[in-house]
Amino acid sequence: MNGWGEYLAAWACFLGAHMIPALPGPRGWLVARLGRRGYLAAFSLLSIGLLYWLIMAAGRAPYVHLWDQPLWSRWLVNIAMPLAILVAALVVGMSGLIAAFTLWAGAHLVANGDLAHAIFFGGMLVFALSGVARSGLPGAFRVTWQRLVLAVVIWAALLHLHPLVIGVSPLPV
C-alpha cells in the first residue's frame, strides 16, 4: 500500500486507536487487564508508533503544492518547538502535553505547504484543540531543574534526530 491509500489507512488507525479507548467500556477493560500503568505504557507506545507511521505516510503521499514555505516559517517552528517541549515538561497533567501538541501542529502547519502535510498538521491541530477544549488550558506547573534539563535534552534530541528520523532538517537554510 502506498500513496493516498496508506495515508488514509494510517489516519484511520491513529484515530481509531484514540477514539476506541476513549469509550468507557474498552478503556475499563484494558485497564482491568493491563493495570493503569500498563495501559498507559501500551497506549503511549501504540500512539507514538501510529503517529510515526502517519508522519511517514504523509511524506509518501503524492505531493500537491498549496503554498510556498518562506524562510520565516522554519524560524517559527524552531521557536515554537522549545516552547512546546517546555510546556509538556513543566505542566502538571495531560493539559501540558495537549498544549504542546497544539503548538507543534500549528507551527508545522504554517511551515509545510503541501496537501498531505496540511491535512496532517491541520488534523493534528484540530485534534489537539479538541483536547484543550476538554481538559482546559494548563494551570499548574512543576518547575524543577530536572524537568528543565529533560526539556533541553528532548529538544536537542529532536532537533538532531529530525533529519534522520523524519528525513527533513528543521533548521532554516
From TrEMBL:
It comes from the Bacteria. Its main location: membrane. Keywords: Membrane, Transmembrane, Transmembrane helix. One of its GO terms (cellular component) is membrane. It is found in: Membrane. Residues 8-170 form the NnrU domain. InterPro entries: NnrU_dom. The keyword Membrane applies. It is a multi-pass membrane protein. This is NnrU protein. It comes from Paracoccus haematequi.
